[in-house]
Amino acid sequence: MTSATGIAEPLERDAEIVIEPGGAIRHYWRDLWHYRELFYILSWRDVAVRYKQTVAGAGWAVVQPFVSMVIMSVIFGKIAGLPSEGRAPYPLLVFAGMLPWQFFSNALLASSQSLASNANLVSKVYFPRLIVPASPVLVSLIDFAVSAVVLVAMMVWFQFWPTWRVVTLPAFVGLAIVAAFGPALLICAMTVKYRDFRFVIPFLMQFGLYISPVAYSSAVVRERIGEPLFLLYAVNPMVGVIDGFRWALVGQGAIFWPGFLISSLCAVVMFVAGLRYFRTTERTFADLV
Question: How far is CA 52 from the centre of its chain?
Answer without folding.
Answer: 22
